[in-house]
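hiii so um. not sure if this is the right channel but i have a protein structure encoded as C-alpha cells and i wanna go backwards to a sequence. like what aa goes where. can anyone help
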C-alpha cells in the first residue's frame, strides 16, 4: 500500500505513535453536520482539551484537498465548522474518489475507523454509531458503520446506537458480524439521548483497565474486527425515554411523508427532534460526546501501559537471545581455530611422508607409461650410452651392479609423466568427388563517377532552374502573297498609373473606339491574309516583379488599420481604446435585446419590504413550524424581526 501519498499525520500525533503514547481518534462529521456553528467548533476544541487532560493525544480525522488528515489544527476545525453541510460526508465508498479528485470530506464513523487503522490508532471516540434503520426489511437501509465494525481493528466508544434506528435489528447485525457489544457500567445498551433502550449487551465491564485488557487480548489472538463500547449519557443530561420516543415517531412519519431517504435521513431526523425538543437534544448530544471522549482517553492510556509492559518483557527476551547469540558466536570462533590448527598439523605430517618416499613407483613396471631418465638421455645422445650396452661382449666388471648381482635392488630414478599423444591428422574423405574450381568471369572496368566539383566551361554550362522553352520551328519558304491595304484601327488603352501608397484609386477601364460599320463588313467579306511568320529571336530570361492593378488590391477597412508602432517596431497596445470599444459593443447589444427596458420594468415591479415584528406561534408542522400572526409567513425557526411586503 502506498499510504505516504495520501496520509498526512500531524507532528504531535506522529511523535506520540512512534513513542508508544496513547492516541484517541475523533470524527469530523460531528463538526460539519452534527451541530450548528459555533457550537460545533467549541465542542470539537473542548473534546480535544478533555483528552489531553486525561493524558492522551487527540487526533481529529478529516479529508482536506484529497489528503487524509490525522490531527487538525484550530484553523482547520474553524474551516469545517463554518462551511458546515457544504462539505461532503465521506464514508468508505467516498474515500478513493475524494482522494483522486482532491476534494474535502467530513469523515463518518466508518471512514474514521479506516483512516485511524491506517495511522495505527486503536481507540476512537464518537457520539453514536449508525445502524439498521426502521423498515430496513423493505428498504435495506443499513449503515456502513456496522460493516466496518466487523472488519477494522478499532475500539469504538459511543453512547450506543442512535435512538432513531431499529436497535434490535442493529444488535442482530452486529452479532452476525462477530462484533462484541460491551456495556460500560450497564447491562443495557444506551440509546443515545437516553440511558436505557430495552435491549441487553453481551458483556458488562466497569473499568477502563478491563476494557484495555479485553481489546489487547483480541489483538493478540489475531481476531480481526472492532469492539463496540456503549457508554451511557450522564443522568443529569439524559432525556426521558417516553419523550424521546414520541419525538422520534413524529420525525419518522414526517420523513416518510416527504420521501426522505439515504444519507439525508439521519440529519433530517436529528434536526426535527432538536426542533421538537426545544434544543434539549443538542445539549444532550454535546455532553455525551464529552463523556465518551473521557472514557476513550482513559482506555487508551491503559492500553499503552499494557503494550509498554509487553515491550519490557520482549526486551528481556531479546536480551536472552542476544546472550545466546554471543555464546554461540564465541564457540564457533573456538571451533574454527581448532580446525585450523588440525589442518596445519595434518599438512606438516603429509609433507614429511612425501620427503621420505619421493618415488611412489619403486618398480618401473608399476607404471608402463613411465620411461627411465637414463633411457631418455640415451635417446637424445647415444654416445653417452655405457660401454657394455655399446659392446655386448664387454667385460662383466663394466656392467652395473644390479646386473652383476641380480639380487641387488636397482636404483630407479623418479618416474616421469607419459608424453602427450600426437594430434590425429585431419580426416579427408577419399570418395568425395573433386570439383573443378569455377573460372572467374571478367569484370568490367569501373567507370569513374562524375566529379560534381569539376569546372565546366561557360559555353557548356546549362542553368537547371531556367524554364524549358520549345524551340521555334525553322522558317518555311512560302509563296509571296499580295497584301491589300486595310484600314487599321488602333485601340488606345490608357494604362493606369500605380501609386504605391494610394489605395483609394479606382481603375478606369480603357474606352474602345467604335469601328465603322462599312469597315467591319469589309473585314468580314474579305479576310486579311496572314502575314509571313518571322522566326522569333530567343530573348534572355529575366525575372520581373508582378504588381497587381489597383482594382485587384484589397482594401482593409478602417477598423483593421494597424496602429502606430513604437521605435522598436512593436505594436503599441492601448487598453483604453479596446475597453471603450467593448463597452460600446455591449451597450449596443443590450439596446438591441431590450435589457435596459426589462431591468427598469422589473425594478418598478419589485415590492417594498419592511421589518415585521409580529409575534410567532408554534404550529408543530415540519419544516414550517412557526407562523407570524401579523403577516402570515411561515418559518423553520423563531425569527424576529423578519421582512414582509409593505401594504398601503
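sure thing!! here u go:
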Amino acid at each position: 500500500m502506498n499510504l505516504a501519498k495520501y496520509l498526512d499525520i500531524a507532528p504531535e500525533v506522529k511523535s506520540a505513535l512512534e513513542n508508544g503514547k496513547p492516541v484517541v481518534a475523533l470524527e469530523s462529521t460531528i463538526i460539519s453536520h452534527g451541530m450548528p456553528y459555533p457550537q460545533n467548533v467549541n465542542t470539537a476544541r473542548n473534546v480535544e482539551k478533555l483528552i489531553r487532560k486525561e493524558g492522551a493525544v487527540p487526533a481529529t480525522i478529516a479529508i482536506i484537498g484529497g489528503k487524509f488528515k490525522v490531527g487538525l489544527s484550530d484553523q482547520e476545525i474553524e474551516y469545517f465548522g463554518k462551511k458546515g453541510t457544504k462539505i461532503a460526508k465521506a464514508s468508505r465508498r467516498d474515500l478513493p474518489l475524494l482522494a483522486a479528485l482532491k476534494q474535502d470530506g467530513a469523515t463518518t464513523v466508518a471512514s474514521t475507523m479506516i483512516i485511524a487503522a491506517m495511522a495505527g490508532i486503536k481507540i476512537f471516540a464518537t457520539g453514536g454509531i449508525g445502524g439498521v434503520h426502521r423498515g430496513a426489511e423493505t428498504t435495506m437501509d443499513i449503515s456502513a458503520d456496522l460493516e466496518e465494525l466487523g472488519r477494522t481493528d478499532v475500539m469504538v466508544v459511543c453512547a450506543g446506537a442512535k435512538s432513531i434506528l431499529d436497535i434490535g435489528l442493529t444488535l442482530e447485525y452486529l452479532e452476525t458480524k462477530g462484533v462484541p457489544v460491551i456495556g460500560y457500567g450497564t447491562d443495557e445498551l444506551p440509546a443515545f439521548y437516553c440511558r436505557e433502550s430495552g435491549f441487553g449487551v453481551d458483556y458488562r465491564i466497569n473499568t477502563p483497565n478491563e476494557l484495555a485488557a479485553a481489546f489487547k487480548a483480541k489483538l493478540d489472538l489475531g481476531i480481526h474486527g472492532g469492539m463496540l463500547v456503549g457508554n451511557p449519557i450522564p443522568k443529569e443530561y439524559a432525556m426521558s425515554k417516553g419523550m424521546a420516543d414520541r419525538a422520534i415517531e413524529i420525525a419518522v412519519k414526517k420523513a416518510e411523508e416527504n420521501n426522505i431517504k439515504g444519507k439525508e435521513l439521519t440529519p433530517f431526523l436529528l434536526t426535527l427532534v432538536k426542533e421538537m425538543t426545544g434544543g434539549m437534544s443538542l445539549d444532550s448530544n454535546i455532553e455525551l460526546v464529552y463523556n465518551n471522549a473521557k472514557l476513550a482517553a482513559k482506555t487508551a492510556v491503559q492500553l499503552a501501559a499494557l503494550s509498554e509492559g509487553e515491550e519490557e518483557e520482549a526486551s528481556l527476551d531479546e536480551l536472552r537471545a542476544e546472550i545466546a547469540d554471543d555464546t554461540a558466536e564465541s564457540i564457533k570462533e573456538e571451533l574454527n581455530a581448532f580446525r585450523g590448527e588440525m589442518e596445519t598439523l595434518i599438512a606438516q605430517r603429509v609433507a614429511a611422508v612425501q620427503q621420505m618416499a619421493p618415488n611412489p613407483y619403486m618398480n618401473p613396471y608399476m607404471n608402463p607409461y613411465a620411461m627411465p631418465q637414463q633411457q631418455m638421455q640415451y635417446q637424445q645422445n647415444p654416445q653417452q650410452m655405457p660401454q657394455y650396452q655399446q659392446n655386448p661382449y664387454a667385460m662383466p666388471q663394466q656392467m652395473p651392479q644390479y646386473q652383476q648381482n641380480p639380487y641387488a635392488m636397482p636404483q630407479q630414478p623418479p618416474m616421469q609423466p607419459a608424453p602427450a599423444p600426437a594430434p590425429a591428422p585431419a580426416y579427408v574423405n577419399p570418395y568425395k568427388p573433386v570439383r573443378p574450381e569455377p573460372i572467374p568471369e571478367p569484370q568490367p572496368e569501373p567507370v569513374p563517377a562524375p566529379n560534381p566539383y569539376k569546372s565546366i566551361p561557360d559555353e557548356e554550362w546549362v542553368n537547371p532552374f531556367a524554364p524549358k522553352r520549345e524551340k521555334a520551328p525553322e522558317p518555311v519558304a512560302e509563296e509571296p502573297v499580295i497584301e491589300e491595304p486595310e484600314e487599321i484601327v488602333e485601340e488606345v488603352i490608357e494604362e493606369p498609373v500605380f501609386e504605391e501608397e494610394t489605395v483609394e484609386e479606382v481603375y478606369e477601364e480603357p474606352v474602345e473606339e467604335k469601328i465603322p460599320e462599312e469597315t467591319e463588313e469589309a473585314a468580314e467579306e474579305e479576310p486579311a491574309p496572314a502575314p509571313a511568320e518571322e522566326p522569333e529571336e530567343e530573348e534572355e530570361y529575366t525575372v520581373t516583379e508582378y504588381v497587381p492593378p489597383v482594382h485587384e488590391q484589397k482594401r482593409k477597412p478602417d477598423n483593421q488599420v494597424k496602429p502606430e508602432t513604437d521605435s522598436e517596431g512593436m505594436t503599441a497596445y492601448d487598453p483604453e481604446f479596446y475597453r471603450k470599444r467593448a463597452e460600446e459593443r455591449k451597450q449596443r447589444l443590450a439596446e438591441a435585446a431590450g435589457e435596459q427596458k426589462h431591468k427598469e420594468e422589473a425594478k418598478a415591479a419589485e415590492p417594498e419590504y419592511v421589518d415585521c415584528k409580529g409575534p410567532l406561534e408554534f404550529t408543530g408542522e415540519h419544516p414550517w413550524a412557526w407562523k407570524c400572526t401579523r403577516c402570515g409567513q411561515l418559518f423553520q425557526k423563531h425569527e424576529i424581526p423578519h421582512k414582509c411586503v409593505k401594504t398601503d
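oh and The mean pLDDT is 76.
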